[in-house]
Design brief:
Blueprint (H helix, E strand, L loop, with lengths): L2 H33 L11 E2 L1 H9 L4 E6 L2 H6 L6 E3 L19 H10 L7 E6 L4 H12 L5 E4 L2 H7 L30 E2 L1 H7 L5 E5 L3 H5 L2 E3 L12 E2 L17 H9 L8 E5 L5 H12 L5 E4 L2 H6 L15 E3 L4
Parallel strand pairs: 1-5, 2-3, 2-4, 4-5, 6-11, 7-9, 7-10, 8-12, 10-11
């Protein structure tokens, strides 16, 4: 056998060895990828699927179903059996010159009594915008001590995506003789931040102020109705709340791994205390829920007054990007 043939045989053998090695490596990588553990939500007890709610309705389970939306949206279509509320019914306009602050406990008890809700039973809530309004209402209920509450994952979209039809007939309120009363022993400010707490956080390096509004609001380009001026809280980190859900289609929460990357990539980590804010505490209630319940962050609060309250106090510092041309919008949050 001449040297040329020996060389070709040796080269061919080496190519086979390399190819087999690459194939094995590829198979191992593929196997490792398939076996990578899926990250579950830390706590999904406050989530309920539309199929489960449908079964509860068919089984005549005792609970109160609420859609948080403007009346015209509710009247156009809603989940069968759902009652309707909107923001003005659970905000405190009596003690403030601006809107958005959470209603007093007494006002909430009056509202829930009118809706026929019982403090002994569960309240299931949904909305039409990815549960941002539903979770604001949940935030208030839990603040005053009612923890028997869940939201429909995906909201109204979750209902129709499950193949269920909507109704157009308004649900009549049922008079009850027993008023709704919060359990005062369960009241909690664990997730509630006041203006004073936020002021103290400005000089605390262990506290992250998380702005969950749109980028235009964060930079100061957009001034929303209700705020006295545009801008943001000093040292804020920006992560739009809408990035936590499938905003363009299902409105369902994203997977836990995606959510964790969203926050950790911006330095919003579990070792920090986090105070989320938006325009009036609606979107930031959603973010507080995602961080605390779905991801297991231990120290997350929602600044109730958010930018609206902050903007009305001329003694408080704020930041704004000076090159932005200001635009306005009539929406509240």
């Amino acid at each position: 056998m001449n040297s040329s043939i020996k060389y070709l045989i040796t080269l061919f053998a080496l190519m086979i060895i390399v190819a087999c090695g690459n194939q094995k490596s590829s198979q191992e990588d593929s196997s490792a990828q398939k076996e990578a553990p899926k990250i579950d939500y830390y706590n999904d007890a406050y989530l309920v699927e539309a199929t489960d709610v449908k079964q509860m309705i068919e089984n005549s389970a005792t609970f109160t179903l609420i859609e948080v939306s403007k009346l015209e949206d509710y009247e156009s279509s809603h989940v069968p059996g759902a009652l309707n509320i909107w923001r003005s019914e659970y905000e405190n306009r009596e003690d403030y010159d601006y809107g958005g602050m959470i209603a007093t406990k007494e006002k909430m008890e009056t509202l829930l009594t009118r809706l026929g809700a019982s403090s002994d039973h569960e309240i299931i809530i949904y909305d039409t915008k990815g549960n941002v309004d539903a979770l604001r209402f949940v935030f208030i209920l839990r603040r005053y001590g009612h923890d028997k509450v869940r939201i429909i994952n995906g909201g109204k979209n979750g209902w129709t995506d499950a193949g269920f039809s909507l109704d157009t007939t308004p649900v009549q309120l049922v008079s009850i003789t027993t008023p709704f009363v919060f359990d005062s022993t369960k009241e909690s400010i664990a997730h509630y931040a006041s203006k004073e707490e936020v002021i103290a956080a400005l000089d605390d390096p262990n506290v992250i102020l998380l702005d969950v509004r749109t980028l235009d609001e964060y930079t100061g380009k957009m001034l929303k109705n209700g705020a006295a001026k545009a801008g943001r809280l000093p040292k804020s980190i920006h992560i739009d709340w809408a990035n936590t859900i499938d905003y363009d289609e299902s409105f369902r929460f994203k997977e836990a791994a995606d959510l964790m990357y969203l926050y950790e990539s911006k330095g919003v980590t579990k070792d920090k205390k986090i105070i989320a804010y938006c325009h009036t505490g609606v979107r930031s209630a959603h973010t507080q829920f995602v961080l605390s319940e779905l991801l297991g962050y231990k120290n997350v609060k929602n600044y109730d007054g958010s930018w609206t309250e902050w903007s009305h106090d001329d003694n408080l510092p704020f930041e704004i990007d000076p090159k932005e041309e200001l635009v306005g919008t009539p929406t509240i949050d």
